[in-house]
Each structure stands twice: as structure tokens, then as C-alpha cells.
Amino acid sequence: MKKILFLLLFCGFVSVSVAEELEDFEKEYQQYEVSDPLSGYNKMITEFNVGLYTYVMRPVLKGYNAITPSFVRSGARNFFDNLLAPFRVVGNVLQLKFDNAGDELKRFIANSIMGFGGLRDIASEMGIEKHPADLGLVLAHWGVGEGFHIVLPILGPSNLRDTLSLPALWYATPTAYIEPDYASFLVGAYGFANELSFHLDEIDEIYYNTPNLYPFLRDAYEQRRKELSK
């Protein structure tokens, strides 16, 4: 499948030009059906997310990118990603994807030791591939349906299965145990915003140049999750 859409919850953005891929995307997804009984609500929240991005998040992140050295942003990105590597190891094992789990374990060891605690992504430089594996993908792999589509404020496209899986991702992240609670929230919010700062061009392309934005985001999200669960 052509990689075209965000990383889950904005954290899944992939770097491609939507303009170049749109025609192929429409052909690939035109037969894909999604359960969407909340379409009215979902469209409203999508509009809210676009507005929030346009008037708040985008200007703030543009400023952040302008004043923050790229090596600081990259280091923070690598660090937060490395924290989730053990979670991906377990997720791949639960799907019986042992080669993928091995890659994730090697990534975690390499980045933790040679990458100065994960600040540098040595594993990618060594050609060790990353394999997404969260609880939603584990459940999907074993036949649990996605349920109806739902758009989350700020976080974006999701579905019932993946939304109910979010607490597992939260509690699997070491930053969730920082005390006091507001500090944990601030650290997590920074990691989210820092990751988002790398994808402003892609988000701009999707949000501002995609006809029928909501069904595009909905169908691409659902199909991408389906492909990852195989």
C-alpha cells in the first residue's frame, strides 16, 4: 500500500507528497468501506482539528522549529521513539512476528547503548527496520474488528478498537509514571508536539490541498491500520 497518511494520532505521518499520490490513492481505496455512523460528529471534529492546527499548533510549531536546533529536535524525537521500542517488541511477539520483534529488540539495544540512551537513531543508520506494533494492531491481527470510525480531538482519525487501546499505550510509556501528574502530561505533550514539528509540510499538503478531506483521512487511516495488522 502506498504510504500516504499520518502516523496514528498524528504520530504516524509519513513523508510523501499527497498531490503526487492522490490519483493512485483514490483508485486503491474507492472500494474500501468503513463503518461510519458518527460521520456528522467526525466531520465536525475534523474541522475543529484543522482549525486548531491552522490557528494554534502550526504557528507555535513554526516558531519552535525556527528557534530550536535541528539536533535537539532530532534527539528528542529519537529518545521518545526509543522509549516505545520494548512495547513494539511485545506487540510483535503477540502477533507471532518474531523476526520483527528481533529487529525491535536490536534497535532498542543499539540505540540505548551506542545511541546515548536513544538520542541518536543508530539502528536506522545500521539498516535495522522499525516495525509498528501497538495493542490495536495486536487485536486486529487476531481478528478483532475495528468497530466504527471516530475522530478524536487533537489526535485525529481512529476507530473504536484503537481508541479503547490508547490507555495501554499510555501506561506502556515510561513518561506516564513521572510525578507529579502534570509533569507527565507536559513531557508527553512535548514529545507529541516535537514529533509533529517534523511533519508540517505533509500536514499542510493534506489539510489544505486534499479534496473531500474527511473521507480521505478516514479511509486512509482504516486501510493503513488494516495493512499494518497483517
What are the salient characteristics of this protein?
single chain; 230 residues; mainly alpha; two-stranded antiparallel ribbon; 11 helices; globular; disordered N terminus
Task: Give a verbal description of the structure.
With 230 residues, the protein is mostly helical. It has one domain (18-228). Helices cover 64% and strands 3% of the residues. The protein has a two-stranded antiparallel ribbon with strand order 1-2. Helix 4 (85-94) packs antiparallel against helix 5 and helix 7 (135-141) packs across helix 8 (160-172). The two termini are 12 Å apart.
Quick summary:
The chain is mainly alpha-helical and 230 residues long. The chain contains eleven helices and two strands, in the order H-H-H-H-H-H-H-E-E-H-H-H-H.
Structural class: mainly alpha
Average the pLDDT over all residues and give the rounded result.
87
Largest sheet: 2 strands, antiparallel
* Helical content band: 55-70%
E-strand count:
2
* Major beta sheet, strand line-up: 1-2
Helix segment count?
Answer: 11
Intertermini distance: 12 Å
The string of secondary-structure elements, in order, is HHHHHHHEEHHHH
Shape label: globular
Which segments are poorly predicted (pLDDT under 50) over 5 or more consecutive residues?
1-25
Tell me the radius of gyration. 18 Å
